[in-house]
Amino acid sequence: MIDPSPCFRGAALMPDAADASRAPRWSVDLPDLTGRRAVVTGASDGVGAEIARGLARAGAEVIMPVRSKAKGERVIAGIREDDPAASLSLRSLDLSSLASSRALSRQLRAEGVPVDILVLNAGVIRLKDRVRHVTADGIELHLQTNALGHALLVADLLPLLRARGARVVAQCSLATRRAAIPWRDVNLERGYRPMRAYGASKAALGLFAVELARRSAAGGWGVTSLLCHPGTAMTNIAPADSPLRRGLVGRLAQALYERGIGLQSPAEAALPALYAATSPHAHSGDMVVPSGMFEIAGAPALREPYRALTGRAEAARVWDLVTELTGAHFPDAGGASDQATPNSGGNTNPTPSTQPA
């Protein structure tokens, strides 16, 4: 662990004793973010909604790119019940479509407002069936939604991110501790399993974030790249009828959560991302995780990224995969290019290599 302290500078995480029937909970006051713009993907429910709530409460203008406008509007209405002055607005984004990622980037660039915080939070896990799903771009669904779509967004928004030295926060998972990318079959055409696909996609996102930190430092981009994971929480990332939520295991998890044991609320699970996005103690390349046993729950703590995410060759390989499959363009890591050129196309129907590079 780099720093197990569960505190923001001048804004300590404090136990919330409002509900004495449950285990201690945590709340937090963030630094003043007035005048800052934040973009949070996957903010239409669960942890993402709470990240948006926290940033808006601190005064940031929060952009919420969502697939479902109706769900996003419900989240905004709920936040404004507590904070009528909260500045939140929706944009359209479907990360399973490279065209949608590009469209959002074009829209935000046209608005011309620098992005100070970008939280790559949206994610999908398809446990309802064991059928491999491929996007219209020809990429396995988990890989594109959880990793490649986000990476393309970073590439296309880089001018806005560099304008005021933004923080980019990649929401990873406990699964990345031991997950591996199947380089001989990155599109999982053989041996597909939902959890394997999910773990590989989150590993790809984490490795991308590590490489982003390295390249930003080497090229003088001024972008801070951090990783985090929320621990365990009752959220809607998995369908209600998936193996994660139905049957004995799902009922046990719900019972434990209701008794304040183990599982966190979405608000608690949002704290690592909020810490990564705002704390002066978190630096580029750091990872923020729950501080409790097995990183399942607890106040945020800093640590080095998991060993599986620290291989430089592996991270560079993910970077190359991003550019190959999405057409993303980044400036030279040595600083040869002053700004990223907005992506205008790229390979829209890639065929991922099934052999080692």
From TrEMBL:
SUPFAM superfamilies from the UniProt entry: NAD(P)-binding Rossmann-fold domains
UniProt region (Disordered), positions on chain: 330-357
InterPro entries xref list: NAD(P)-bd_dom_sf (IPR036291), Sc_DH/Rdtase_CS (IPR020904), SDR_fam (IPR002347)
GO MF annotations, alphabetized: oxidoreductase activity
Ranges of compositional bias, category Polar residues: 338-357
Keywords, ordered alphabetically: Oxidoreductase
Gene3D superfamilies given in the database record: NAD(P)-binding Rossmann-like Domain
Entry similarity comment: Belongs to the short-chain dehydrogenases/reductases (SDR) family.
This protein's name: NAD(P)-dependent dehydrogenase (Short-subunit alcohol dehydrogenase family)
